Amino acid sequence: MIDPQSNDNSGRRIFFRNCLACMGMVGSGMVAAPLASFLQRPNRLEADSTIRIPIADIKEDEAIYRDYMGAQIVILINQGKPLVLNAACTHLGCLVRWEHSSRSFICPCHGAIFDQGGKVVKGPTNQPLEIIPAEVKEGVLIIG
Ligand code: FES
Questions:
Q1: 3-state class (DSSP) for residue 89
Q2: Does the Cβ of 88 fall within 6 Å of ligand 1?
């Protein structure tokens, strides 16, 4: 029988010790799971060092976004030829969005507009989108 006046706190100590052990295990899992996930990720630079896309898969009206060497690139057909651009706005680096209806890239951050070739139509920037070197071999666009 438990005496309410007793100073024996052993049950309470065991309870708190078990609570601390559980919190420690949860905390360890919260650190270990993302760490394990990070360590198991493929090397992005290795995986993204070359991109190959059959030209037939690139539609005239479409912009294709891909990860490439740690950046977002956008691929589109411009005047019948494939063009690869860095999708980072040259103002402060926001990702530009392709607007099919106006055939231009719009920056959602401060409203810069680039034409389908990456040239500035409207500031605040005056630098065009960076062109990423690419070539076509045997009907395949090769980037990198
Ligand atoms: S980051 Fe694009 S306009 Fe500012």
A1: coil
A2: no
